[in-house]
Amino acid sequence: MRKLFLPLLILAALMFAYAPVAIQNAPYESTMGLVQKIFYFHVPSWFVMFSAAGVCGMGGAIYLFAGRKEADRFALAAAELAVLFGLMGLLTGPLWGRKAWGVWWQWDARLTSALVMWLVFVAYLLLRKYGGVGSEKLSAVLALFGMANVPFVYLSVNLWRTVHPKTSVVMTLEKDMGRPFLLSTLAFMALFVLLLAARVRLENTRAALDELYLSLED
Amino acid sequence: MRNAAILLLLVVALGVSVLAQQPPPQPPEGFVPAASVQGQEQLPAAPLVITAYSVVWLLVFGYLWSIWRRIARAERDLAEVSRRIAGAQRR
Question: Computed over its alpha carbons, how large is the radius of gyration of chain A?
C-alpha cells in the first residue's frame, strides 16, 4: 500500500482539481437548473459512505468470528470515514432539497433511513471511545447492523413512496452528465482509499504503542 | 293590504342581507406573472451550490488536518517510548 500511496494521492489530487471544471461544463438539468449540480458530489459521498459501512461491517465480522485485530483496526478506521462522508451527504442533501422541494428536510423513507444508518456509525465511534474494556466486540456487532442497513437505504427510494430521486437516475444519465459524475465518483473513491490507509496507519501506530507500554509494565 | 306590505318588507330585508354577504375572493385563473410572487419564494441556487461545495472541502481538509495531527502525536509517543526502553536496556 505504501508504494501505491503516492501515485494514488497524485491521481486523486488531479481528479479533484479537474472535477469542478467537468461539473461546470456539465449541462443544467431541465427542471432543477443549477442546484442539480450538487448531485456530482452528494451522490459520490453516499457511495463512499456505503463502501465505508461495508468495510466496517466486514472488518467487524472478521474480528468477531476470527479474532483478527487488524480487521478491527480497519473497522474502526472505516467507521470514522462512514461518519465523515455520511455527514457530507446529510449536509449537501438539504441544500439541494431546499431549492428542489422547497423544504430542507422530509421525514420520508430515504432521508430517515440514511440518518438512522449514519447514527449507527456515530454510536459505533461513541462506543469505541467511551465503552471501556470489551467495547471492540460490542461495536463489531453494531458494525454488522450498520452494514445490513446499506441495501435498505439504497433501495428505499424504489420500495417506498419518497420525494427523493430513484436509483435509476444514475444509470440513465446522459453522457454529458455521466462523465463528470464518473470522474467525481472515482475521485471520492480514491480519497476514501487514501484516508482509510492513513487512518489504519494511525491505528497500527497506536497498537504498537500499546504493546510497548505493556512490555514496559512487564 | 297590510299582509302584502309585511311580505314586501320581508323580501326587501332578505334581499339586503343577501347583498350584504361578500362573495369569497376567487383565486386567479391561469399563470401568475413572476413579479407578483413573494420575495421569500425566490431562492437563488448559486449560494446553495457554493455552500454545498464548501462543506465538502471543509470536511475533507478538516479531517486531513485532524488525522495528520493524530498520526504525528502517536509516532512521537512511539519514538519516545522506544527511546526510553532502549535506554533502560542499556543500563
Answer: 19
Kindly list the residues from chain B whose CB atom is less than 8 angstroms away from the CB atom of residue A212: 78, 81-82, 85
Instruction: Note the ipTM here.
Output: 0.88
Domain boundaries, chain A: 35-217
Count CB-CB contacts under 10 A for residue A209.
Answer: 18
d(C-alpha A112, C-alpha A114), whole Å:
5
pTM above 0.90, yes or no: no
Pairwise CB contact (< 8 Å): A205 & B74: yes
Q: How far is B90 from chain A (nearest CA, A)?
A: 14
The three cell numbers locating residue A146: 450498520
| Alpha-carbon distances of A112 from A157, A163, B34, rounded to whole Å | 11, 12, 34
Query: Which of A26, A51, A50, A49 is closest to A39 using CA atoms?
Result: A26
pLDDT, one tens digit per residue, over A21-42 is: 888 888 888 888 888 889 999 9
Chain A residues lying within 8 Å of B75, measured CB to CB: 205
